[in-house]
Specification:
Alpha-Beta Plaits, SH3 type barrels, 2 domains, five-stranded antiparallel beta sheet, elongated
Length: 162
């Protein structure tokens, strides 16, 4: 069995998605890490996918068996990244770690309106209502204080479902 290694491809500006698709259509195994980003477009916040490494993607090739020539002429590809005359090899374990880290985020623990219990801080032991998620580490809760509902923002690890 032939040893396969990962290499870096530099793409033309804003064409990494096109390059990845065209390389996959040619039968190459491609890894194009993307992340979901919130962007303000036409006055609304939208979630869009953006490359984790703009202008770059990874391709798995055999040193001997694969014909590397079609890669250079693939639409969206600028070049195979190299130091001198040698293409840059990326360790397989690094690609595996990247794939593991950019997995889609798990389903949210709380839904709007869920009852939660505060486990830490000055409001420890109080019940609240989950209002929204603020990034990965913070939540907004509705808490009854002095017979009024108050919005508080605390660390998400400080609350648990009831």
């Amino acid at each position: 069995m032939l040893e396969r290694s990962w290499y870096v491809i530099q793409c033309k500006a804003k064409e990494s998605f096109r390059a990845a698709e065209n390389l996959q259509n040619q039968g190459f195994e491609v890894f194009h890490p993307v992340i979901e980003v919130e962007k303000l477009r036409t006055g609304k916040i939208q979630c869009v996918l953006e490359p984790l490494f703009p202008y770059y993607l990874f391709i798995q090739l055999s040193d001997v068996a694969d014909n590397w020539r079609p890669i250079r002429s693939t639409r969206g590809v600028l070049k195979l990244l190299a130091f001198g005359c040698s293409p840059v090899k990326i360790p397989t374990r690094l690609i595996a770690q990247l794939k593991q880290r950019i997995q889609p985020t798990p389903e949210k623990l709380f839904k709007v309106g869920d009852q939660v219990l505060i486990d830490e801080g000055p409001f420890k032991g109080l019940k609240a209502i989950f209002a929204s998620q603020q990034g990965d580490e913070r939540v907004i809760l509705l808490l009854n204080l002095l017979q009024q509902q108050q919005r508080i923002e605390i660390a998400s690890q400080s609350v648990r479902p009831l």
